[in-house]
Amino acid sequence: MAHLRDAVLILVLLLALPAGARAAPLPAEFAAGLVIRFQGAPSALSALAGQNVDALRPMSGGAYVLPFDSPLPLEEARALAAQLQASGEVAAVEIDRRFTIDRLPSDAAYGQMWNLAASSAVNYGIDAPAAWDITTGDPNLVIAVIDTGVLKLHPDLAGRLLDGYDFVSDPFIANDGGGRDSDASDPGDWVSFGDIAAHPECGPFPHDSSWHGSHVSGTIAAASDNGIGIAGVNWASKVLPLRALGKCGGSLSDVIDALRWAAGLSVPGVPPNPTPARVINMSLGAPSDGGTCSPMLQAAVNDVLAAGAVVVVSAGNSRQDAALYEPANCNGVITVGASEMGGNNASYSNTGQTVEISAPGGDAARFYPGQPANLILSTVSSSRTAPQPDSWTYAAMQGTSMAAPHVTGIVSLMFSANPALGGALAVRILQDTATPFAPTAPCAAAGTCGQAGIAHAGRAVARAAGLAALLFPNDYAPAYAGPPAAPHVLTVLTAPSGDPAQTRVTIGGQPAVILSAQALPGRDALRIQPPAQPAAGYYAITVTLGGRNITFGRAVFYGQTVYLPGVRR
Fold first, then answer.
1. DSSP state at residue 40
2. For the chain, which terminus, N or C, has the lower number of CB atoms within 10 Å?
3. Mean pLDDT, rounded, for 283-298
4. Helix extents (H) in 418-534
5. Do the domains 473-558 and 133-466 match in fold?
6. H helix count then E strand count, the chain
């Protein structure tokens, strides 16, 4: 969140963990065991000091599986395999790697969605499939979209929407025959020459309906794995459409009322919101008066944050400093810049330190032969004016308006994986797990990329899920173990395991001794004796919980001086 980057976050250990939270999958950098083929009959395996060779299990092809007592870091497993190979006791040995499902949706146009694909040197997508292997969304979580309304009958939005509300108070802007009402459908926002003549602020040129709110909503939560159209970032959580924009835009007052109502706060003359949102997307903006966020808009943001919601906004498309535009410059929001397929900041995107994170927004100015269009495909109508039956289709667009919903979707998946996660920590995770911009990115040369790179859904959701399983210590609330040669006893807090005595802990790749294990309400508490380490510094902790590994790389600090938790070094 804006201006919260440097907040000291040491309260993770105090979070209550909801029942049923999932542990993160065993990471690829850990190994569960070895697959061994012997020269003859199985031997005693003298090279396997410290491992239970009685656990050898025969498998097909004449080989045997040796499961480790607890998963080992990949480098340690490789070293053990090399020892075995050199011992002369085995014909072949391999690491028993963990395979996972590579979940991809069946949506017909998914192959055109570079923006959701795994990040690589030639495609800077958000790697949504890696996140979907952990969660596809919490059906009880609500995501609000404050925009032009939504095409409720679009087949790729059907079943994904709550009722919402229309906050447009000006009948001309509303373009639906009245002012505020309970129908958040998008009637179209086309502008004619006649509209411009009567309302010069709508000029200078006429345009067709944008279907902007439906495009944004589709990126967040289009019906997925249904064999048609596109996939959304979140497959299960519902979208609450709130209409605050219409023909020729919308007013600050309508946006403020929609924002408060989205979070469950009262608005005069409007019924209470029965489904308050946890995440709110605002792909909208205006030049800021005086270069600061409107005091009334900032007050609304503050109220919404205090209510427990997170606000994600677009940075703007003016190739300027995002600090000159609101709500991008409001304190506490997550401001999102636009990137493109090749890892550059989009040519139109606002930039600067107000931008917390970037995400795919597309860029028609850059073309990559043999690749999908460098744009963002989502749900719209083919009608140029009002929606028509059987006009439902898809269109490729570009803009920071298209970037913001990617981050909204990712944050909603993070909250789905870890409902106890707070907004400020969610931003830290987004930034810590981001993919750096390409070295050739114009913003990299100018130093204007913002506070972080391009959002990576897989890493961010995995980190959030890890925090749900390993409450303390972790990268955001490290523990102080004392001197490297004589560490003192620590307490480790984990998710409820059902049998805390079966939990295993390693620090710096070495096993810790479990002195006691206690099941408490909402968590397990382990008293451990950390292993000695060769030198002062941060060490990784790995907790094996329910057969899965959760690892944080800078979670335990050894040193001669007193360490202050929460201070990164």
1. S
2. C
3. 91
4. 423-432, 442-446, 457-469
5. no
6. 11, 24
Residues 126, 52: Cα–Cα separation, whole Å: 41
Give the residue extent of every domain in the chain.
30-95, 133-466, 473-558
pLDDT tens sequence across 455-514: 999 999 999 999 999 999 999 999 999 999 999 999 999 998 888 888 999 999 999 999
SS3 36: strand
CA angle 305/359/400 to nearest 5° reads: 80
Cα-based distances in Å from 405 to 298, 311, 360, 374: 21, 11, 9, 17
Q: What angle do CA 252, 255, 257 make, to 5 degrees?
A: 110
Band (26; pLDDT cuts 50, 70, 90): very low
Spatial distance between the Cα atoms of 236 and 219, rounded to a whole number of angstroms: 13
Mean pLDDT of all residues belonging to the chain: 88
32-70 per-position pLDDT tens digit = 788 888 877 666 565 555 555 567 788 777 788 888 766
Give me the phi and psi of 527, to 5 degrees please: -95, 125
138 assigned to active site = no
> What one-character-per-residue DSSP string does 412-424 give?
HHHHHH-TT--HH
- Collapsing DSSP states into helix, strand and coil, what is residue 172? helix
What residues pair up with 312 in beta bridges, in sequence order? 281, 334
Does residue 382 have an active-site annotation? no
d(CA 259, CA 307) in angstroms, rounded, equals 11
For 307, residues 6+ apart whose C-beta sits below 8 A from its C-beta are 263, 264, 265, 276
Set 96, 107, 138, 147: catalytic member: 147
* Average pLDDT over every residue of 389-412: 97
β partners of residue 242: 146, 165
Cα 269 to Cα 267: distance, rounded to the nearest angstrom: 6
Beta-bridge partner residues of 234: none
* Spatial separation of the C-alpha atoms in residues 533 and 262, rounded to whole Å: 51
Of 212, 215, 406, 456, which one is the catalytic site residue? 212
Is 106 catalytic? The answer is no
CA dihedral sign of residues 164, 168, 174, 180 = positive
Instruction: List Cα–Cα distances, 272 to 165, 255, 278, 382, 421, in angstroms.
Output: 11, 17, 16, 34, 26
Residue 5, pLDDT above cutoff 70: no
**Which pLDDT score, from 0 to 100, does residue 52 have?**
59
CA 77 remoteness from chain centre: 31
Helix (H) or strand (E) holding 69: strand 64-73
Q: Contact at 8 Å (CB) between 314 and 269?
A: no
Q: What are the respective helix, strand and coil percentages of the chain, to the nearest 5?
A: 25, 25, 50
CATH of domain 133-466: 3.40.50.200
Task: Choose the catalytic residue: 185, 217, 401, 416.
Answer: 401
CA distances from 369 to 342, 360, 366, 397, 398 (A): 12, 18, 10, 19, 18
